[in-house]
C-alpha cells in the first residue's frame, strides 16, 4: 500500500522523512528515531489538527514510530525569500496554536525542561565556547529558574521557517516532535536569534508580532531577553554535534552579541 520514494528530510541523522505514495495520494512518511518524539508529534496533531494549520495526519503507526502525512505541494519557507507576509502569517498561526491548547495544562510550566536542558547542555558547551560565556549563560539560566515563569501554553518548540510550508498566501506548520508545555514567549527565542543576524530581521520580527496580535508583557519580554542567550548556547552545541559549522558560527556570533 505504501510506496516509499526519495529521502527529503534534513541530513541531521534524527527523524527520517520520505516522499511516498499511499492509496493513490502523495504523502510524506516521517519515521522517528525516538519514541518520545513520536509521542510528542502525535500529541501535537491531536491538539491542533482542528485549526487547519497542519497537514492531514493520514495514518499513525506507534509501533514503527511512523506517521503518514498528506504532502503539501509547496516548499519549505526557509528556501524562499523571507517576506513580511510570510512572518505575519507565521505569527498569526502561532497565536492560533497557543490559543488552541486545552486549559488548564498539566502542572508543568516548562521549568523542568529548562532545568534538564541546562544540565545537559552547559557541560557540553565547556571547551567549545569561551569559559566566560558559559559561566554567564549558567548564571542567567539559574536566574530564570529561580524566578516566575510567564504564562504557559502548549508550545511548538521548534518554530522557525524550517518548519513552515508557504505558498505565498497560506502557511502550514509541520514538525511537532518537540511540542511541550512552556511559556508562550519561549516559542520565539530561536526565531528571534536567527533573525537578529539578518539584514531585514527587525522588520520580519515586527511583522510576526503583528500577526501574533499582541505585544509581549514586560515579564515575557524580560524572560525572552534572558532565554535567548541560553537558546543560542544550546543550538551552538547542537550544531557542533551535528556537523553544522555555519550554524555553530552563527549561534556563536549571536551569543557574543547577546552577552557583550
Ligand atoms: N506534510 C508535508 N508536506 C510537504 N513537505 C513536508 C511535509 N512534512 C515534511 N516535509 C518536508 O520534509 C522536511 C522535514 O520534515 P520535518 O517534519 O520538519 O522533519 P525533521 O524533524 O527532520 O525536521 C520539511 O522541512 C519539509 O521540507
Ligand atoms: Mg523540521
TrEMBL record:
Q: Gene3D superfamilies under this entry?
A: 3.90.1200.10
Output the InterPro entries linked to this UniProt entry: Aminoglycoside_PTrfase (IPR002575), Kinase-like_dom_sf (IPR011009)
**Ranges for the Aminoglycoside phosphotransferase domain?**
70-218
**Which protein is depicted?**
Aminoglycoside phosphotransferase domain-containing protein
High-level lineage: Bacteria, Thermotogati, Deinococcota, Deinococci, Deinococcales
Amino acid at each position: 500500500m505504501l510506496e516509499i520514494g526519495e529521502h527529503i528530510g534534513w541530513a541531521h541523522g534524527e527523524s527520517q522523512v520520505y516522499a511516498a505514495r499511499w492509496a493513490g495520494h502523495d504523502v510524506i512518511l516521517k519515521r522517528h528515531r525516538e519514541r518520545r518524539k513520536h509521542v510528542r508529534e502525535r500529541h501535537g496533531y491531536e491538539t491542533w489538527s482542528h485549526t487547519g494549520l497542519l497537514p492531514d495526519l493520514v495514518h499513525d503507526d506507534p509501533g514503527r514510530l511512523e506517521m503518514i502525512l498528506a504532502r503539501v505541494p509547496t516548499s519549505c519557507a526557509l528556501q524562499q525569500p523571507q517576506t513580511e507576509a510570510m512572518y505575519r502569517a507565521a505569527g498569526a498561526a502561532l497565536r492560533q496554536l497557543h490559543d488552541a491548547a486545552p486549559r488548564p495544562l498539566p502542572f508543568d510550566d516548562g521549568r523542568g525542561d529548562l532545568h534538564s536542558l541546562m544540565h545537559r547542555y552547559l557541560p557540553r558547551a565547556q571547551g567549545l565556547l569561551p569559559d566566560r560565556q558559559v559561566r554567564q549563560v549558567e548564571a542567567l539560566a539559574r536566574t530564570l529558574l529561580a524566578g516566575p515563569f510567564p504564562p504557559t501554553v502548549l508550545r511548538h518548540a521548534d518554530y522557525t521557517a524550517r518548519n513552515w510550508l508557504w505558498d505565498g498566501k497560506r502557511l502550514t506548520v509541520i514538525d511537532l516532535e518537540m511540542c511541550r508545555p512552556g511559556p508562550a514567549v519561549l516559542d520565539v527565542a530561536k526565531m528571534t536569534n536567527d533573525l537578529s543576524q539578518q539584514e531585514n530581521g527587525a522588520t520580519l520580527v515586527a511583522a510576526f508580532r503583528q500577526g501574533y496580535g499582541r505585544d509581549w508583557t514586560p515579564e515575557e519580554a524580560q524572560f525572552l531577553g534572558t532565554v535567548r542567550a541560553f537558546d543560542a548556547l544550546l543550538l551552538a552545541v547542537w550544531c557542533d554535534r551535528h556537523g553544522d559549522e555555519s550554524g555553530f558560527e552563527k549561534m556563536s556570533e549571536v551569543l557574543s552579541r547577546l552577552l557583550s
